[in-house]
Description:
230 residues, globular
Amino acid sequence: MDKPYLIVMLTHNDRTVENAYEIFEKCRNSRAEYWGAKEKPLPPGQMKKLYKYMKDCGKKTVLEVVAYTEEEGMQGAETAAELGCDILMGTVFSDAVNKLCKECGIKYMPFVGDVSGWPSILRGSFESMTAQAEEYLAKGAYGIDLLGYRYTGNAAELNRKFVSQVNAPVCIAGSVNSYRRLDEIKSISPAAFTIGSAFFENRFGRDFCEQINAVCDHIGSSDRREKVKC
């Protein structure tokens, strides 16, 4: 199986940091191919500048939207379309959001389970989450955004069972903040995982770029494509 890929989130406590552009500029030649942010709180102009720069550097771009209503989800999806994102993660599943993503060629990975709060918390049973996933995938969603380590129950067991059961890309998002959790992710091999706050809290080292490369090395995945000068 392919190794999981890291999505570097320029976020801390589920909010995009003010110096996201500067951090990406510093780390654009690190091993991470996938980069993303949340829909809040940067102004639209700064978001467009950031995402254009990431795309100019040949990166895959992700927007994760923490939204619990269809209206908020649509606003996030419209933002993803304006930014030219490759992947929209998050939102409570919506047929309208799904339709917009299909029209714009965006890969949609909605939340499953009972998600609430900010930073998000995940509740619900394994059975209900897999049933939701099957429904969303049948409607054409690309994959699933699983807030596994935000789960109020046994997170490691949920992640393992969910990834093995769901026949589609699964991203383990949120609170991947230790090498022990990296080892758990490596053992179950989801499609992807996100790290944001842990990099800002220096959980994998002292330098932001060195932490990215250390995580890629540990998990066994990296951006092996030819680097784009930007």
